[in-house]
Amino acid sequence: QLQLVESGGGLAQPGGSLGLSCAGAGKPFNYFIVGWFRQAPGKGREAVSCISTNAADIYYTDSVKGRFIISRDNAKNTSYLQMNNLNPEDTGTYYCAAGLPSWRTVQAMCDITWLNYWGQGAQVTVSS
Question: Residue 85 — pLDDT band, cuts 50, 70, 90?
């Protein structure tokens, strides 16, 4: 069983920055595709970004392209999401997720259907 624990997030003003970390334990972290998802109040969980096992392939949803950066350090069993130029629409609970790779592309894998390990979530609030 892979355990995922998010940390970071918090409160930022519009235009500000926040960072999230996702620490994995229990299984070799480098075996897994890692993704970040978010859920705003009253809305469904949406994919934000996903990264392949060796970081060669990365997917971003359109609304965060050019503002968010996903990365991973397999030696530290950790993935990161750097969020810049935040806006109120970025508010929500952010979840780290992981799944074993398949024949699907990273973009196709970046879906709640295919990632079966989840963290507990971290709150991100963007407000003036």
Answer: very high
